[in-house]
Amino acid sequence: MENVLYSINLAIHILAAIFCVAAPFYQLRWVKLRGKLGFPIIYPFDRAVESVLNLQPKLCFGFIIVLIITGFIFPLIHYTFHGEWRDVGRLALTVFSAKTVLAFIGLAVMIHGVWILGPKIQKTFASFSPNTQPPDEVLNRFWAFRATRKKICQFCFGLALTIVIITPILRFYK
Length: 174
Hints:
By secondary structure, the protein is mainly α. It has one domain (2-172). The chain has four helices and no strands. The chain has helices spanning 2-35, 43-82, 90-126, 136-172. The model has no long low-confidence stretch (mean pLDDT 89).
């Protein structure tokens, strides 16, 4: 039964990790593509971009929550079946701690992106019209918000890659 629970938890954890890493990867691809088109608003295209870019951080936020929960379930499964915590070396404990800290940093960044920056971008974009270009002041603010979102996305992608790269240490070093 322990192996079944571990395997189910591992599958959920891996899927959440894949989706969490994929989100900023594809979001950065959208941003790069849009950047090639210049600064005027291309309303139908920008509306589609905003729909995608507004949803992805929310999904990633959910995936990070799943990763944190399933990450803590691994040692709990062992404890449940063995009555003690798995004996691990200093390296594995350090990596587990680093992954946990990085995941919570990602969560904090996503909180900012989803509940602070996202609504500002959506509110600004909602003031745009498909027929006319917005005033320069509003347009500049919109591009500044988008640039901030791009930096956050790059940071999250780096965090996710770091976590993926250090994860095998937990499996193979005890």
